[in-house]
Amino acid sequence: MLLTRGIRRVQVNTWVLLGVAIVWVAVNLRWIITYRRGQILEIDEAGYIGMALNDHYAAVRDGVLGWIQAVEAPGIQAPVTPALTSLQFFVTGTSVVAAFIVPMLAGLAIVLLTHAVANRVAGRPFAWLATALVATLPGVIVDSRAYHFGAPAAAVTLAAIYFLIRSEGLTKTKSTIAFGVFVGLMPLTRTMIIAFVPALVLAAFIQAVLAQDRKKRLIRFGAAAVAAVGVAAIWLIPNGAQVYRYLTGFGYGPQSAEYGTEAGIFNPAAWAYRLHLLTIEQYLPHVLFICVGLVAAVFVAIRKLRGGQAKATVTAMIASPLFPPAVLVVEGAMAFVTSKTTGNGFTLPLVPSMTLVALWGLYRVHVRLRKALPVVVAVIGVVALVPQLDLRAPTARLWEAELPVVGRVTVTDGRGVPQKYAGLGVESDAPQPVSAEAAKQWIVAADWAAQQIVDRHAIRGVTAFGFRDRIFNTNTVQLAVLRKLGYGVAVPQIRPIEAGNSQPDYERWLTRYQDSISGDASTACLLFTATGLNNEFLPKVDPPAMAAAAAATGFAPVATHPLPNGRLVTLWHRPQPACVPS
């Protein structure tokens, strides 16, 4: 009888979870179809979709070997998400809307994996609370509706945690090997989360080495390490040097200055700034819950240590399913606060684990609070989710608050990436999508630039960008070139912090400076410049100085095109051997 009831409960739990998954996908798919079709792309989205198209067209031209070569081609961006999308394109076609399927399914995987991990941590009631919190996390929803690497990276990280927990302290070989595979996939899903790999490796090693049968567990740990290294080596061996320079440069080197100046474990301003960033990505209701819960978790852990034998308590904590996510939260926070860089969704691989640990703390701190948690979670979920349902709803408008130390934070916001990013001269808290006419004008501008590259025989040469507009840039033009030709071209873009930001620096960039990743502007036969500073990334390029540098280095203006934000793009030409009719 008890067995039958248990089976029925599992079946009901499975059907309810399936229903939640269907509703979650339906809500986000409708939003993507309604508000992303025909819209502008953020610079990273354009670049990543371009990678997917490049992989896809390589497969179309040259089959499996061509696809492998394209995926393995030298680069600094993790290959997994574009590679999966390139294969998906054979089924769905290559429309922009179709590209969002992989990130959306990654978001769904985050929700389902959270349920699975939480169920092992503290049972089904706890699991449903965790699922409700993570399914309504603004960062999970927004990144599932954007072509970024945040959601896939978080899903892979959570999968590694799940299989480590399922291995029961590395006592089960298959789960241990699966853990190693997903750890190896982490840097291939997003290069920056290589900083989080040590946390999971450390958690697994501690669980293995402190067990009584440590020899067998360490053997399995070694097998998992081999699996992880083998998977990661597929892409990191040919690209490791570039990835290292990229991560150290943008994480700790001169390029990191573009993102801020505050970093350091013992720097209070750095912690306050990271908390500010967390509220910008996850919004205040969830962040408040996480912060209070993490404090409660520390309190509960200390209470446990003081209430019994310390050694036995520590051993029990290490063997607990909560140990791997807890180690990830601590190590990940340290990695994040020591780097100046702040990209899209950098905290997302940490947030499900932070939510689990926080929920556990509040779940264990007092029985009365445990009884109140369903109501608290329901309120937070509704407040966070309702603005995300429809841009036309009044609740979708940005709601901010000013907090001491942390500064201005987001309470709720129904906007997605295009609405936050547009900056079309009318950027505000208005939740409406960019007008279809304006979006089309941006697409037309990119198509014009791509056609100029073709018509002026620059396919085999280099086309430089002497400005850094958020929407009309190397990535959006490269995407237009890929759709036109089926392959990309060399399009370097000025990076003022690295190359300098004065006319002599621009002249050096156009004559002597070398950038092997995206092409050398010193060999460029075409150069795009723009008037004005509207929508320009910081630090902003000086337009008159760039135009003067172009004239001084042999370029002559040959065409112009207006942008929807009021800027005027000028195309310059300079004779180069690579840019002649074939």
How would the global form be characterised?
globular
Based on CA atoms alone, the radius of gyration comes out at: 25 Å
The number of distinct β-strands equals: 6
Major beta sheet summary: 4 strands, mixed
Which percent bin holds the helix content?
Answer: 55-70%
Unreliable stretches covering 5 or more consecutive residues: 423-429
Distance between the terminal alpha carbons, to the nearest Å?
80 Å
**Share of β-strand residues:** 5-15%
Q: What structural class results from the helix and strand content?
A: mainly alpha
Spatial strand sequence of the major β-sheet: 3-4-6-5
Order of helices and strands: HHHHHHHHHHHHHHHHHEEHHEHHHEHEE
The helix tally amounts to 23
The average pLDDT value, as a whole number, equals 90
